[in-house]
């Protein structure tokens, strides 16, 4: 008599793949995780865009600074001056009550904070801080 190999019944089932229930559970878990992650990513994307917008505004100020330095004069960035209001508007920003930032032709900068509002539905508020004497810039959201 010949010996027969006997396979347990459950091994044949394992080789066929995933069941529909297992697939549905995985899809449900992925959906749950994405509902938590996607809104945070959208907020980060908006903040990134707004930061870039403010950086472009500051670059425009720096361009004006270079022009004034060549003339050997001092540049004063004052939120109440129409020139700076117009520059902010060009970048979809509104300048609100802020410190005066003084940039001398020798490179010394009397820093301060420029308070900005983004022209959007939420009217997000930001502060562009310029440090004395080197002019390092820090852009932070205001609450």
Would you write up a description of this structure?
The chain is an alpha+beta fold and 143 residues long. The protein has one domain (17-142). Helices cover 47% and strands 22% of the residues. It has 3 helices and 7 strands, in the order ααβαββββββ. The strands form 2 sheets. It has a 4-stranded antiparallel sheet with strand order 2-5-6-7, with helices on one face. Strands 1-3-4 form a 3-stranded antiparallel sheet, with helices on one face. The radius of gyration is 30 Å and the shape is elongated. 13% of the residues are buried. The model has no long low-confidence stretch (mean pLDDT 83).
Anisotropy-based shape: elongated
Distance between the termini: 87 Å
Catalogue the unreliable spans: none
Count of helical segments? 3
For the biggest β-sheet, the strand order reads 2-5-6-7
User: Percentage of helical residues?
Assistant: 40-55%
Quote the beta fraction.
15-25%
Instruction: Let me know the number of strands.
Output: 7
Mean pLDDT: 83
Q: In sequence order, what are the helices and strands, one letter per element?
A: HHEHEEEEEE
Tell me the number of structural domains. 1
Quick structural overview:
The protein has 143 residues and is of the alpha+beta class. The protein has one domain (17-142).
Pick out its properties:
single chain, 143 residues, alpha+beta, 4-stranded antiparallel sheet, 3 helices
